[in-house]
């Protein structure tokens, strides 16, 4: 899967990954996201905005994820925690913008 990422400096990069979990690890390794809780749905440092056209391709926001998102200053309708996102259908392309740090 091809993923276009717009980072906090508005720089665009493309990643070739097999799933969202690999993307999460890669962005963490590159320090594009802090991923402080390691994917436990508690720190929100993996907050991203998902392109609207890809909403159908990923899992729905669960209650614990929604509670974290509700507490964020920069939350938007298309906010997700990257660590909680999984693909529901096979897709070739995804576009994600990393949210500003809180
Ligand atoms: S890495 Fe902490 S909430 Fe996703």
Automatic annotation (TrEMBL):
UniProt feature coiled coil, ranges: none
Q: Which residues form the 2Fe-2S ferredoxin-type domain?
A: 10-87
Q: Which cofactor does it need?
A: [2Fe-2S] cluster
Recite the UniProt keywords alphabetically. 2Fe-2S, Iron, Iron-sulfur, Metal-binding
Q: Does the keyword Ion transport apply?
A: no
**One Pfam family this sequence matches:** Fer2
What protein family does this chain belong to?
Belongs to the adrenodoxin/putidaredoxin family.
Provide the protein name.
2Fe-2S iron-sulfur cluster-binding protein
Taxonomic source organism: Zhongshania borealis
